[in-house]
Amino acid sequence: MDRQEILSVIEKALSEVLERPVTGLTEETALFDELQLQSFHVLGLLMTVEEATGIAVDPEELDVDDLRTVRSFTDYVEAALRQGEGTS
Questions:
Q1: What one-character-per-residue DSSP string does 17-44 give?
Q2: Which pLDDT score is estimated for 5?
């Protein structure tokens, strides 16, 4: 899965959990400040991204910085995908 595909998955997941269309994301988009993502949305976002990508996210290991921007979350998902490839 390339970076653009990951961004698309994140955009779809955000649309689902925020219950409104989310389009035109850039890597600089701030998830909490610009999109009004709330803490109660995070679990749904993580579950949706897990389903779409096959990664497993441990919320205990997730740092708030991983969710600061679309870029930081995309980096997190990319790293999880690479780690998964290394264990198969």
A1: HHTS------TT-BTTTTT---HHHHHH
A2: 97
Per residue in 36-62, pLDDT tens? 999 999 999 999 999 999 999 988 889
- Which amino acid is located at 51 in the chain? E
- Cα→Cα distances 9→4, 68, 87, 88, Å: 9, 17, 23, 22
Query: Whole-number mean pLDDT of the chain?
Result: 93
pLDDT at 86: 63
Its pTM stands at 0.91
Tracing tokens 């390339």 back to the chain, one arrives at 2
CA distance 86 to 14: 28
CB atoms within 10 A of CB 13: 23
